[in-house]
């Protein structure tokens, strides 16, 4: 157990994180108070699902899962609101663990990420899913009475707290298994204790819950009868929600609002989904699939890029487990949804799942349908695409690396900045513009700014050849897996040049100068050649077609990986004034300094790192001083 400490016989202190969360939540969510009921109903529904699931395999629970409804009572005089379920319930220890501490590992990160700005934090909390403690938004005191299914009547417990750092626990006797939560509603929120309010809130947030939600209200005839004002009116239950799993209903009968409402509770996302796909596959094997493409990265994904959850597996409408790990490849881990299969055994385990041919088939469909959704958004473009791309573009790119089968399909959904247009462009767009060439040229760099001014693309610009500017960290990996797209080669501009007829040839003097630079730089550099492709730059680094690019070397070093020793090759532009001036330099020492300078500059333009930055600064300063002295001497 955690650091829950006991103050006296039956009083316990909350875990520090609970106290912190409580305070924050009550302030941040004050204006969004209605969600507390959604959270309590959702817990009651989860508890019902759990009982149904355990009853499948645990003989002693058989039959207990018959009356799985959620009941809501309110009493405006006593100022109470009660949520009762007949689900799995909790043991004493579970109550301590679940309601006294925060078990979820993401909570700590979540608390750390709060900014203190109430508005932003409220949005975060909304995404995060606030759970049980949201009851304290509207209640002065919360009482939980619970009995674990299968336990004896006198093994039940009562948990009470006013949310001020402590809670009380005492043993009680409870007739039925399940949980009853009684809120002592605070004065500010008494208006909630009203049939129409409650009906509206339940319908709004919990309509899709698959267990019936009964609201107990005065009998219609009694309510009208003013004479009975003194005596308590007789109550009757009214089922408020649809109580049918949304994905099992015919598509034609589900409105967009219903799809969105279901999404919002499934994903805990205050933003609507970008789009969704609903398939009901009938036949030898039948299953339903409801997939959503979110608009923004869910909280878990922002906090932990490895998190994979969000695809729930049901078997004949019984919730079995989160099966994102089995059903979604990692590059689609932002997708949300539900898969319901009629043909898997109810007591399926993760191991069985992993080997199931049916699951492989469902997984293939999930991938295909997800890519269909993304394709639609990509083709439509505009703000929605931009939102999708900003949130998930980098993750989607992993598909090129990971999914050999879908590589080309995923690649066609990617967009990059390009020298040919201000708008990001795709590989298909590039092919349309490239004429009869057979090479897609790209440059990888740290930023669009570095890429646009890179010496490597000067000759391409002059010749009107488009270059894709890949500036995302992952792009280097993407192109290392994507050598070809629709029959066209992908090539880095640092490793080659377009074949054109009017290729200029370097003259003897240029070759000689290159030889001198090589001699001056020694082992620091591989080959030094005259490069006639550059127009504005003095020099550039070139890598062999099969060598690791400078950008990749840098990324690997940052990731703590060993990088094989490679010496960069250098090309110098004999038509550049600096190189021309070097050619006339007799002083060997100065020539060496200049050669080093030109080499360092080429590395810098690459976004690379200098082996000796201080040495570089020193050389530049020496040369500057000389030049300035000469200039002022000239003026004398
Ligand atoms: P979450 O539901 O997101 O895990 P909560 O704070 O809502 O977080 O609840 C914490 C835990 O308390 C739940 O995971 C569950 O184990 C338990 N719990 C809450 N409400 C109930 C209930 N009505 N029946 C059984 N267990 C419950």
Average pLDDT, rounded to a whole number, is 86
The count of helical stretches stands at 24
What does the radius of gyration come to? 34 Å
List how many beta strands DSSP finds. 24
CATH architecture call of the largest domain: 2-Layer Sandwich
Structural class: alpha+beta
**CATH fold call of the largest domain:** Heat Shock Protein 90
Outline the biggest β-sheet: 10 strands, mixed
CATH homology-level superfamily of the largest domain: Histidine kinase-like ATPase, C-terminal domain
Strand order of the largest sheet: 1-2-7-6-5-8-4-3-9-10
Shape: elongated
Query: Approximately what portion of the residues adopt beta-strand conformation?
Result: 15-25%
Q: What are the distinct ligands in this entry?
A: adenosine-5'-diphosphate
Report, as a whole number of angstroms, the end-to-end distance: 86 Å
Query: Which oligomeric state applies?
Result: single chain
CATH class descriptor name of the largest domain: Alpha Beta
Which regions are unreliable across 5 or more consecutive residues at pLDDT < 50?
Answer: none
- How many domains? 4
């Amino acid at each position: 157990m955690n650091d829950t400490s006991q103050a006296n016989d039956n009083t316990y202190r909350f875990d520090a994180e609970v106290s912190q969360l409580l305070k924050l939540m009550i302030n941040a969510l004050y204006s969004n108070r209605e969600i507390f009921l959604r959270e309590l109903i959702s817990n009651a529904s989860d508890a019902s699902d759990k009982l149904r699931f355990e009853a499948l395999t645990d003989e002693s629970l058989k039959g207990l899962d018959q009356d799985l409804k959620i009941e809501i009572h309110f009493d405006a005089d006593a100022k109470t609101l009660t949520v009762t379920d007949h689900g799995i319930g909790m043991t004493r220890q579970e109550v301590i663990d679940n309601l006294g501490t925060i078990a979820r590992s993401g909570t700590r990160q979540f608390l750390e990420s709060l900014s203190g700005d109430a508005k932003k934090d409220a949005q975060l909390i909304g995404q995060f899913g606030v759970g049980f403690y949201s009851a304290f938004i509207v209640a002065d005191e919360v009482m939980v009475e619970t009995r674990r299914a299968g336990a004896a009547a006198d093994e039940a417990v009562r948990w009470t707290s006013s949310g001020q750092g402590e809670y009380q626990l005492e043993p009680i006797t409870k007739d039925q298994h399940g949980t009853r939560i009684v809120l002592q509603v605070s004065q500010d929120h008494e208006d909630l204790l009203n049939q129409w309010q409650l009906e509206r809130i339940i319908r709004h947030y919990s309509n899709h819950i698959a267990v019936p939600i009964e609201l107990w209200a005065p009998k219609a005839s009694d309510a009208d009868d003013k004479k009975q004002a003194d005596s308590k009116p007789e109550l009757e239950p009214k089922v408020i929600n649809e109580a049918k799993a949304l994905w099992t209903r015919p598509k034609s009968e589900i409105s967009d609002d219903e799809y969105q409402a279901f999404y919002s509770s499934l994903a805990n996302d205050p933003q609507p989904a970008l789009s969704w796909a609903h398939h009901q596959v009938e036949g030898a094997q039948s299953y339903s699939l409801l997939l959503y493409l979110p608009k923004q990265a869910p909280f878990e994904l922002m906090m932990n890029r490895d998190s994979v959850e969000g695809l729930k597996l049901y078997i004949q409408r019984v919730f079995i487990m989160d099966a994102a790990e089995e059903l979604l490849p990692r590059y689609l881990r932002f997708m949300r949804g539900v898969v319901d299969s009629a043909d898997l055994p109810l007591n399926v385990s993760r191991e069985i799942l992993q080997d199931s041919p049916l699951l492989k088939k469902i997984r293939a469909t999930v991938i295909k349908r997800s890519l269909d959704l993304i394709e639609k958004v990509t083709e439509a473009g505009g703000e929605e695409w931009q939102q999708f791309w900003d949130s998930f573009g980098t993750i989607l790119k992993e598909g090129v690396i990971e999914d050999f089968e879908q590589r080309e399909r995923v690649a066609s959904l990617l967009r990059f900045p390009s020298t040919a247009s201000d708008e990001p462009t795709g590989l298909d767009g590039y092919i349309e513009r490239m004429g009869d060439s057979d090479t897609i040229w790209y440059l990888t760099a740290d930023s669009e700014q570095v890429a646009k001014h890179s010496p490597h693309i000067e000759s391409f610009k002059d010749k009107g050849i488009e270059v894709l500017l890949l500036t995302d960290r992952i792009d280097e990996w993407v192109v290392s897996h994507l050598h070809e797209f629709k029959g066209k080669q992908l090539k880095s501009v640092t490793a080659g040049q377009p074949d054109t007829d009017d290729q200029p040839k370097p003259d003897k003097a240029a070759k000689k100068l290159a030889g001198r630079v090589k001699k001056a730089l020694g082992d620091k550099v591989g080959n030094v050649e005259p490069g006639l492709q550059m127009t504005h730059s003095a020099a550039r680094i070139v890598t062999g077609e099969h060598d690791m690019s400078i950008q990749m070397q840098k990324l690997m070093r940052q990731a703590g990986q060993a990088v094989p020793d490679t010496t960069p090759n250098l090309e110098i532009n004999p038509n550049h004034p600096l190189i021309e001036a070097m050619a006339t330099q007799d002083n060997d020492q100065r020539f060496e300094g200049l050669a080093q300078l030109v080499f360092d500059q080429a590395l810098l333009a690459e976004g690379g790192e200098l082996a000796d930055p201080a040495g570089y600064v020193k050389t530049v300063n020496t040369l500057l001083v000389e030049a300035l002295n000469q200039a002022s001497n000239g003026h004398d």
